[in-house]
Amino acid sequence: MYTAFFGLNEVPFSIAPNPRYLFMSDRHREALSHLTYGLGDTGGFVLLTGEVGTGKTTLSRCLMEQLPENMQSAFILNPTLSSQELLATICDELKIKYRKTGATLKTLTDKIQEKLLKNHKNDINTLLIIDEAQHLQPEVLEQLRLLTNLETNTKKLLQVILIGQPELQQLLKRRDLRQLAQRITARYHLLPLNKQEVVKYVKHRLSVAECHRPIFNQGAIKAIHQLSQGIPRLINLLCHRALMNAYNTNDAVVNKKCVLKASSEALGDEYQQGLWWQKPSIKLSAITVGLAGVLVLGLWLGKSLTAPFDPLENKSSIASSPLASNQPAVALTTEALNIQPTSAPADDSQPSELQKNSPSAKKNENLIETEQTVITKKAVDTATDTLFQVNAVDGISNEFLARFQSAIDQTSSEKTDQQRLTAQNDTNTVPVLTDMPAWVQKAVPSLEFDLHIYASDGEGWVKVNGRDRYEGDKIAENLFLNKILPQKVILSYQGKRFSLPALSSW
Description:
By secondary structure, the chain is α/β, with parallel strands linked by helices. Helices cover 45% and strands 14% of the residues. β3 (125-130), α6 (138-147) and β4 form a beta-alpha-beta unit.
């Protein structure tokens, strides 16, 4: 193997759920906090969901290693069982003796309840963890709910953690399972890693394997993020295969070429990266160059017209001229492409650059040509800064227009991601409430954050004083919820911004 070649003491990118290799990103750290919070004194159900390969099972193994000594746990990996088979499996995990033949639902339920009462008497908490819970049948989930009915005045004697794929969320929305859904005291959806976290993830696993030098260069890391979409299991498969390829070619550093080759070998053809000329940035550059070339040709042909061209007095003079009517693709301006902005139009009361430097006032063909170039540049820049809709027109192929629209949408999406990252960095400087002036601390009412769901798309929510709150909600007089982050929330009181931990009381 390649371990000795790269100075590793073991294989660092195994897909086995080894808690030692668990990378605690902000998302994984908050997910673990939700699981720990759900195991509090109140008990009940805890829900952890996420896409395939995001690290749910590894996180549960890490949780089991941190369980206190006064807790007995049962871990079920294969939940495709009937109600009776599930109860029998719980008995096996909790070391409950029962007759293997002739055991009924009532017999097994009574045995489990006896065990729960015995553990409670001995001050031992009982925990049941079910992985791949999206495969549970509705009647089995209802049987689990009935097991949790055994409780004291202050706590439930059985605590259950359900771990599964996003389909589990849809399953719990069934009307016949609404009683179980209401007993979920904490829930979290685990998202993939972003580009910065992928870099830290690879370094973390290499450091656990006792390798502290950079084996993957920047090109390789970028390709790994694009191919895996931030899913840890796919990252492991890519890195493991890329290390083997580098070892076979005697390369001390893994480059992008090794990663691309590993993608087809380990993940299949559907995960292969597209060709360089298919990238949105390349497409946009090609379209811009094409527009400029067509415009230059249009200006050259327009000089043969007897009437001087004035864009302010007749913006469509080229498109409406007899010469342009025979060559519709020549006058490829914003009007000819029929680009319509989907956002609010600009204020017409503000003079544009074209009005400030009107060609009609200069009466010079060279200035007119320069001004027309400015028009084209501004049209392209505006199309990348604002959401536009390109409509079909005669003389221009639908394929060309579709590629132009796709390039505009891709550029707008990249700028939105950059703005979101800038806004997230800005929230790191917000002070905590205990560092705010005394009058602010005294004026802020009592707050209890007993549930916190973070989502990068802004759809996260927190339970404040028993009510679900979203970003922008008014919590109390002059108190607003501005932002929900993985580990904290940002609030403002009379314009003063401050932060509080995600699960806390004030």
